[in-house]
């Protein structure tokens, strides 16, 4: 299996996570610490229904599970990466955290057929994903969001602005070295959904 990372905090803090040997770019611990510090400050993981798109090892969704998420779905198309995410989900669940469901399917296919609703979503696509595909993912995701919901998009700093559907707006953007995190929130009133 090779590379490893770990869960930073919560019930599964310190649990080691395997990282797929190829095809994924795990979020650095420094960026995850900053991200989850911001989410914890607003108690956004507690009881959340979490969706982790382009999940890779599942580190973002599993960190949320460790920090009190009610449910977690990890969506990863690559079979080898999905197997690693499944193994990691089982390790984290042994700590008493929510057991994540791993869906080995393309993101667009999952979003079109899910029917589930989410309050916290992580989108960490490959840095070479075409911008139009990310815009389509955000548009497909919008109907599955509770109100209020938070969507965190991780991109290369050089990627430029996001193309957002009308139901999402940028709350804030933070840069960490070559990585940019966009924190998006749903717009409108709860009755609009």
Describe this protein's structure:
- This protein has helices spanning 29-41, 59-66, 79-93, 107-113, 131-141; strands spanning 4-6, 16-18, 49-53, 71-75, 101-103, 118-123, 145-156, 168-176, 179-186.
- By secondary structure, it is an alpha/beta fold.
- It has one domain: Vaccinia Virus protein VP39 (Rossmann fold).
- α2 (59-66) packs parallel to α3 (79-93).
- The longest helix has 15 residues, at 79-93.
- The protein is globular.
- The N and C termini lie far apart (43 Å).
How would the blueprint of this fold be written?
Blueprint: E1 4-6, E2 16-18, H1 29-41, E3 49-53, H2 59-66, E4 71-75, H3 79-93, E5 101-103, H4 107-113, E6 118-123, H5 131-141, E7 145-156, E8 168-176, E9 179-186
Parallel strand pairs: 3-4, 3-6, 4-5, 6-7
Antiparallel strand pairs: 1-2, 7-9, 8-9
Helix pairs in contact: 2-3, 4-5
């Amino acid at each position: 299996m090779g590379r490893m990372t770990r869960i930073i905090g919560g019930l599964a803090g310190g649990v080691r996570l395997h990282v797929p040997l190829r095809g994924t770019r795990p979020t650095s611990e420094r960026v995850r610490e900053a991200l989850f510090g911001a989410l914890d400050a607003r108690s956004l993981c507690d009881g959340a229904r979490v969706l982790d798109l382009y999940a890779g090892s599942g580190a973002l969704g599993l960190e949320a599970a460790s920090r009190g998420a009610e449910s977690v779905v990890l969506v990863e198309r690559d079979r080898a990466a999905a197997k690693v995410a499944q193994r990691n989900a089982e390790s984290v669940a042994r700590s008493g955290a929510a057991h994540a469901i791993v869906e080995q399917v393309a993101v667009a296919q999952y979003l079109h057929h899910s029917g589930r609703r989410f309050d916290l979503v992580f989108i960490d696509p490959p840095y070479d994903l075409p911008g139009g595909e990310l815009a389509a993912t955000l548009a497909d995701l919008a109907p599955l969001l509770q109100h209020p919901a938070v969507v965190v998009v991780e991109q290369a700093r050089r990627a430029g602005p996001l193309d957002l559907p009308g139901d999402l707006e940028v709350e804030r953007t933070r840069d960490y070295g070559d990585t940019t995190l966009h924190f998006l929130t749903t717009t409108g009133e709860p009755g609009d959904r």
